[in-house]
Amino acid sequence: MVKPKIAPSMLSSDFANLASEAERMLQCGADWLHMDIMDGHFVPNLTIGAPVIESLRKHTKAYLDCHLMVSNPLDYVEPLGKAGASGFTFHIEASKDNWKELVQLIKSKGMTPGVSLKPGTPIEDLYPLLEDENPVELVLVMTVEPGFGGQKFMPEMMDKVRTLRKNYPSLDIEVDGGLGPSTIDMAASAGANCIVAGSSVFGASDPAQVISLLRKSVEDSQKNN
Ligand code: DX5
Ligand code: ZN
What we know:
There is one protein chain. By secondary structure, the chain is an alpha/beta fold. Helix content is 36%, strand content 19%. The chain has helices at residues 18-27, 50-57, 74-83, 99-108, 127-131, 158-167, 184-190, 199-202, 207-224; strands at 5-8, 32-38, 63-69, 87-91, 112-117, 138-142, 172-176, 194-197. Strands 1-8-7-6-5-4-3-2 form an eight-stranded parallel beta sheet. Strand 4, helix 4 (99-108) and strand 5 form a beta-alpha-beta unit. The N and C termini lie close together (11 Å). The model has no long low-confidence stretch (mean pLDDT 98). Zinc ion binds next to strand 2.
């Protein structure tokens, strides 16, 4: 059975205190730290890149789950590998022509390859990457339009999660956008096991309680299936 992974999105943290915010989330029970890398082109927002990952890596051994919202993911593999990224999840919309090369390069740099899709992209676009002899190891289903934290969860994306879980029982399936106490049960019962949560965790008076609630929902759904 796939393990539940709760991944606070550091986009909602105080970037000026990133190392202590990361440590705080790990103390609160986080499994992964979700790092949103945006280039101001694939999405309208601009965030962090390899230099910040490299700085953070000096302060933590945690799994850094990097979500690349960039137009040229290939350009980021080498620098992020060197910086100490753990997971490298690119968008299918930005890698239609070079995903094979991308997956190979990500693995050769010791990172875990993942693929993400925007709300308007059908899951059929991912099957070649999952069926390849060198497959991606995680699928990130966006449950908001990528670019910003604090948006509203799109429940209609759960059909994608359900179909993927049915076809790939041991795949890491991650959901990202609008996840929190009021939406987690929809994602968990559809079969998601990796849960990204930004504003619901960082905005809570007791982040540890929210993280444990998210985990419990995934565990309970797994028991019932
Ligand atoms: C949005 C990012 C998310 C974002 C989630 O493009 O990929 O990781 O930080 O934030 P919340 O949980 O607030 O929707
Ligand atoms: Zn993200």
